[in-house]
Amino acid sequence: MTTMKLTPAGRAWRGVVGTLDGIAAMCLAAMLALMLVEIGMRTFAGSSTLIADEYSGYALVALAFLGMAGAFRGGRHVRLSLGVDAVGKRSARGGSYVELFCVIVVIAFVAVLLVYAGQMTWQSFSRGTLAATISRTPLWIPQLLMVIGLFAWLAEAIRRAVVVATAAARGRAAPAQRSEGMEESWPE
Fold it and tell me: In terms of residue numbers, what domain contains 86?
């Protein structure tokens, strides 16, 4: 296996995806901190932050959506590879075409989600919609994190489609998606 050389744009995109993964990890830490503060205040002070559950929910949404591109890039999404594996054992090019079809389905699905999430976010922003809680958080802020995450996932899926289509055109199996280092490698 030889590792593909990344272009400057590829390195920049890898950095963007890594940054989104880092922000998602910080959201997990923020959720933990909020819950610990809430537990401590209820236990020792008999009071509440009144916002811990709301902001933990926002952090959970951010964690999920901002981490999707990195999970897709690293091959960490739940994946049914029976068809790709079955066809790929007989024909590297055939396996690449099956995977390309699957990635195109992902692109279509994420594009639809992105359109609707974008519309929802714009409506919340233009109407000044606030959360029906004590914090009165403008809802477009957490919704925008969904849009950013979906956009990154869509861009990553398009990047993967190009990689798989290139492999298919060359009669090769598509390079595997790997968790470690977020690099793809070409089979010899």
Answer: 2-186
Q: How many domains does the chain have?
A: 1
Query: What radius of gyration, in Å, describes the C-alpha atoms of the chain?
Result: 20
Mind listing the pLDDT tens digit for each residue in 61-83?
A: 999 999 999 998 887 776 656 55
pTM of the model: 0.84
CA terminus-to-terminus distance, the chain: 5
- The CA distance from 85 to 187, in Å, is 15
168: enclosing H helix or E strand? helix 140-169
For the stretch 180-188, contacts whose Cβ atoms lie closer than 8 Å and that sit 24 or more positions apart, written own/partner, are 182/14, 182/17, 182/18, 182/70, 182/73, 182/74, 183/3, 183/4, 183/6, 184/3, 184/4, 185/1, 185/2, 185/3, 185/4, 186/1, 186/2, 186/3, 186/4, 187/1, 187/92, 188/1, 188/2
Which amino acid belongs to residue 97?
A: Y
The two structure tokens encoding residue 8: 């400057």
What is the token pair recorded at 75? 């091959």
Question: pLDDT tens-digit profile of 131-170?
Answer: 999 999 999 999 999 999 999 999 999 999 998 898 888 8
The burial class, CB within 10 Å (0-12 / 13-18 / 19+), for 40 is exposed
CA distance 32 to 20: 19
